[in-house]
Amino acid sequence: MTDRPVVASVRPEPEPGVLAAIVAAVEECWPRPPAPSAAQTSSATATWRFSGRWWAKPTAARRERPWVGGTG
Predict the structure, then answer these.
(1) Which residues contact 55 (CB under 8 A, 6 or more apart)?
(2) Using an 8 Å Cβ cutoff, are 29 and 23 in contact?
(3) What is the pLDDT of residues 5-64, one digit of tens each?
(4) Within 1-72, where are the H helices?
């Protein structure tokens, strides 16, 4: 797969100078993906870890209990 847009046909066929100007304009305006940062290229830092998250605990352990540890 290329980074360049693919044009199947242009009618009427433009002159070479006009075609070059069109291609240059399209390449200038065509969105490009951002370059990966150093953090994204490292597999250890790019992994999203689920351990220790609130949703990793059982449902009963996530329930609020005002009488536990409260001033109550």
Answers:
(1) 62
(2) no
(3) 676 677 888 899 998 998 899 889 888 888 776 655 555 555 566 556 666 677 777 777
(4) 16-29, 38-41, 43-46, 59-62
User: How remote is the C-alpha of 52 from its chain's centroid?
Assistant: 25
CA gap 47, 55 in Å, rounded: 17
* Pick from 8, 9, 4: nearest CA to 23: 4
Say which DSSP state 54 is in. G
Task: Determine contact, residues 38/30, Cβ cutoff 8 Å.
Answer: no
**pTM score, whole prediction:** 0.36
d(CA 28, CA 37): 23
Q: Write out the H or E segment, with its range, that includes residue 3.
A: none
CA distance 44 to 48: 9
Contact 30, 5 (CB under 8 A): yes
